[in-house]
Amino acid sequence: MKILNLYAGIGGNRKLWGDEHEVTAVEYKPEIAKIYQDFFPKDKVIVADAHQYLLDHFAEFDFIWSSPPCPTHSKLRKSLSMASGAKPIFPDMKLYEEILFLQGYCKGKWCVENVISWYEPLIKPQKLQRHYFWSNFEIPEKEFEKDSIRITGGRNSPEWVQIKHLQERHKITLPENAPNKRTLLRNCVSPEVGKYILDLLF
Helix axis angle, 50-57 relative to 94-105, nearest 10°? Predict the structure, then answer.
């Protein structure tokens, strides 16, 4: 298959897909795209705006995975705003733009992933692990062994402890000079979840 992996990050969702598919990954930040390319040298990696790339190239792919930025939709970001005085922000509606666009125009298979939001979703999702998914195929509920693993020591534990735990959890070792390691790892979709969803297409 020709697969488009949007907002690719370091490729958590892609880690167990293997190399039998032709994968194009789109990541906005060059330093993160470099990490992804090092992890998946056979993939075509494009440094670009994933939202615009989807609009321009959606018809070229058999399967599209999109993980638009989640902070504006997350319960944590909202609770921090309420508790610490951080500035409230509008939810980023690009999430719903992409869902509606794919529903209306995409003839291939697709899924859009995001966090479980602080508000009632505007379009009904499917729920799997700690994510919402919108797709044009059924994603049955499934228990994953790592669902119950919590970050060692919780959010208040030292950052290096969290990074170590998350690298072990995802079986991903970031380079020493990687920026914002904790954020990169926390933004990863579990590799097992990524593989489970891809396998549903066969």
Answer: 10
97-144 pLDDT tens trace: 999 999 999 999 999 999 999 999 999 999 998 899 999 999 999 988
Q: Which two tokens stand for residue 7?
A: 């907002």
Instruction: Report CA 111 to chain centroid distance, whole Å.
Output: 11
Q: What is the pLDDT of residues 3-57, one digit of tens each?
A: 999 999 999 999 999 999 999 999 999 999 999 999 999 999 999 999 999 999 9
CA 120 to chain centroid, in Å, comes to 20
Q: Using CA of residue 18, residue 22, residue 26, residue 27, what is the dihedral sign?
A: positive
- CATH architecture of the domain with residue range 2-144+190-199: 3-Layer(aba) Sandwich (3.40)
The one-letter code for the residue type at 178 is A
DSSP run (H or E) holding 19: none
- Spell out where 28-108 has E strands: 44-47, 63-66
Question: In terms of Cα–Cα distance, which of 99, 106, 111 is closest to 138?
Answer: 111
Please check whether residue 104 is in contact with residue 59, taking contact to mean a CB–CB distance below 8 angstroms.
no
**Residue 162 to residue 157: CA distance in whole angstroms:** 7
Q: Look up tokens 């995409």; give the residue.
A: 106
Quick check: pTM over 0.85? Answer: yes
